[in-house]
TrEMBL record:
Enzyme Commission numbers on file: 2.7.7.87
Protein name according to UniProt: Threonylcarbamoyl-AMP synthase
Keyword flag Nucleotide-binding: yes
Matching PROSITE patterns: YRDC
Length: 316
């Protein structure tokens, strides 16, 4: 992969216009969303999408989310449904991804879907992402902007730490607000939770008036990306720790004595926003990481999902 100079662009009108120009030319640009930074490439341009996989070192059976400016733009690519309309009306723009059957005339590179007949679409809420997508007026494929298998980036510095020299630019708008990736709902059949994320599953169930089927990651290829050892720090990770051993650094939650605290007041929203940055800092110490128990409700589902992956045995 050729080394290039990676520009750090300000998230102002000039920076966003430059980012749109680069994307239109088939270049890769990392950009902020409310969840994490995405590594964007033109989803209609196979070469650009191949570049995403190359820059991340990502296994190519792992399909990508197409980011668009509006539900109207999403409908150009997927077969819309009444349930999609209800969810989009309630939660877009926001941390929700919908997986829907592709339209015959979808125009999306096959590298985005990795050969599936469905497409994951999302309308992000971050103002910089919204302006960029509206300016570009085409779908942007964007996985989280980290090398495959590493911790997701919630700042432009995290992006550059992993991808400097491998992408054309990063739009820097400071830290992401939500801090964990979007919730993914499959809508090809029964509404199914494919990945817990920044929008609590309970809110979706309340709106639909039914519980979601669960088909969590790792089950099979309909929920790919779900390699178990994902989001992994370099150091080993031990979950549900009440106290660190002598060599460990301790990631706490609630009123505990620790090296980093996800939320001293036990607020799960704050914990999600801090999760990846705290892991990045603890990982940089080179010590094994012990992590306090996190309640399995609301955003705790997404946090625990990421932590279990961080703790899973590593792929060779
Ligand atoms: O918040 C987010 O979703 C971030 C920001 C950048 O938008 N993006 C993100 O992308 O997390 P990524 O590539 O790291 O995760 C996308 C997930 C993967 O687990 C992938 O397998 C799943 O979406 N996915 C994509 N297309 C799919 C499809 N057609 N069917 C099932 N799962 C799909
Ligand atoms: Mg990712």
């Amino acid at each position: 992969m050729p080394v290039q100079h990676t520009l750090r662009l300000a998230a102002d009108p000039d920076g966003i216009a430059r980012a749109a120009e680069l994307l239109r030319a088939g270049q890769l640009v990392a950009f902020p969303t409310e969840t994490v930074y995405g590594l964007g490439g033109d989803a209609t341009n196979g070469k650009a999408v191949a570049g995403i996989y190359a820059a991340k070192g990502r296994p190519s059976f792992n399909p990508l989310i197409a980011h668009v400016a509006s539900a109207k733009a999403a409908r150009r690519h997927v077969q819309w449904s009444e349930t999609a309309e209800r969810l989009a009306t309630a939660f877009w723009p926001g941390p929700l991804t919908l997986v829907l059957p592709l339209r015959p005339d979808h125009g999306i590179s096959e590298l985005v879907t990795a050969g599936l007949d469905t497409l994951a679409v999302r309308v992000p809420a971050h103002p910089t992402a919204r302006t960029l997508l509206a300016t570009l007026d085409r779908p942007v494929a964007a996985p989280s902007a980290n090398p495959s298998g590493r911790i997701s980036p919630t700042t432009a510095d995290h992006v550059l730490a992993g991808l400097d020299g491998r992408i054309a630019a990063v739009l820097d708008a400071g830290p992401c607000g939500v801090g964990v990736e979007s919730t993914i709902i499959g809508l090809s059949g029964t509404p199914t939770l494919l990945r817990p994320g920044g929008l609590p599953a309970e809110e979706i169930e309340a709106l639909l008036g039914q519980s979601l089927a669960r088909h969590l990651q790792g089950d099979d290829i309909s929920a790919p990306g779900q390699l178990l050892s994902h989001y992994a720090p370099q150091s080993t990770v031990r979950l549900n720790a009440t106290a660190p051993s002598e060599d460990e650094v301790f990631l706490g939650f609630g009123p505990v004595d620790c090296d980093e605290n996800l939320s001293p007041t036990s607020d799960l929203t704050e914990a999600a926003a801090n999760l990846f940055a705290a892991l990045h800092r603890l990982d940089a110490t080179g010590h094994p990481i012990a992590i306090a128990p996190i309640p399995e409700r609301g955003l705790g589902l997404a946090i625990n999902d990421r932590l279990r992956r961080a703790a899973a045995p590593r792929m060779p």
